[in-house]
Design brief:
two-stranded antiparallel sheet, alpha+beta, seven-stranded mixed β-barrel, 7 helices
């Protein structure tokens, strides 16, 4: 990994020098746009609507159009006047119970590495957070933008997770839930039994992104065949227009519990010393897509380019 930021955490009178690294990465395959007719690359130019000339990036300012149609143009000097935390300091604002931070507020994650000959101050802050079971709220400025962030410990490493501002979270107001009937005790009991039969310890390695796997396979097969590949698509089932059968909720839950129990019983004959619940195998895999949709890409576009997609290009529209 390569450090993207250097600075220090201001922990009272204690200064903790750190390096910042992106904690996550996207593995999605990136595409660039091409002309479907001849495979030529599509490029974009910044054209001024007033003079019709191409404009260099250095000559571009930012503008805001008000609802009344008035335009305000701001330069880099204007943005420099705005309040922001010190660019190379992460000030601790307060310490709060970790469970009080709603997960919906979490945004981007970053690893922090000690950046001094002696990591004693880093270790002190890490152990204090673990001992008190608290999360530090901090200000974190990156790319000229100051965010509220949570500083916590993960696998003995300090981690910063930027937080959304409260007004960036939409209110969940759905009138359809106002008069929704409460679940009956029997329904809650059966649903609870189903949850218990499917319960297990969370292991993210059990889940895979099948869409990206199949997409990579499709690209590799196309390259292996010299860029020519015919993709056969299955006909989609037609909707007969009839209303779906209304199934009794308790009966559906009962069948689910029985199915989970049968799978658990059959799996117990070959169970090992692992602590995982056999019923977990009945749960559907968490995937972003299935194999069939990946095969629906038109043959012409799949064969348009023999070269592998560049990771530096933006995703195709």
């Amino acid at each position: 990994m390569r450090s993207i930021w250097k600075g220090s955490i201001a922990f009272g009178l204690v200064n903790v020098p750190v390096k910042v690294y992106s904690a996550t990465e996207q593995h999605d395959i990136r595409f660039h746009q091409v002309h479907a007719k001849d495979g030529g690359r599509i490029k974009y130019d910044r054209i001024c609507q007033e003079c019709g000339k191409s404009v260099q990036f250095a000559d571009i300012d930012k503008a805001y159009d008000s609802p009344d149609g008035e335009r305000v143009i701001l330069t880099d000097d204007d943005f420099d006047k705005l309040p922001a935390a010190e660019k190379h300091e992460i000030p601790v604002l307060e310490f709060v119970p970790t469970e009080q931070i709603d997960p919906i507020l979490y945004d981007k994650s970053y690893f922090l590495e000690p950046d001094s000959s002696s990591p004693k101050a880093y270790v002190l802050l890490r152990e204090t957070l673990e001992e008190t079971e608290r999360t530090a709220l901090v200000h974190f400025t990156l790319r000229q933008k100051t965010r509220l962030a949570a500083l916590r410990v993960r696998d003995n490493v300090l981690v910063i997770q930027t937080l959304l501002w409260p007004d960036e979270v939409r209110a969940a107001e759905f009138p359809s839930l106002d008069d929704a009937p409460s679940a009956r005790p029997q329904e809650v009991k059966m649903a609870t039994s189903l949850v218990e039969s499917m319960s297990s310890e969370f292991d993210p390695t059990e889940y895979t992104d099948d869409y990206q796997i199949e997409l990579r396979k499709l690209i590799d097969e196309t390259l292996a065949n010299g860029g020519e590949k015919v993709i056969h698509t299955e006909a989609e089932s037609q909707d007969d227009g009839e209303d779906a059968e209304v199934v009794d909720l308790v009966a559906a839950l009962q069948r689910s519990v029985e199915a989970a129990g049968k799978n658990a019983k059959s799996g117990s004959d070959s169970a090992s010393s692992s602590s995982k619940t056999p019923a977990k195998k009945t749960a559907a895999k968490k995937t972003t897509a299935r194999k069939t949709p990946a095969k629906k890409a038109p043959a012409k576009k799949a064969a348009a380019k023999k070269a592998a997609p560049s990771t530096d290009e933006a995703k195709g529209a």
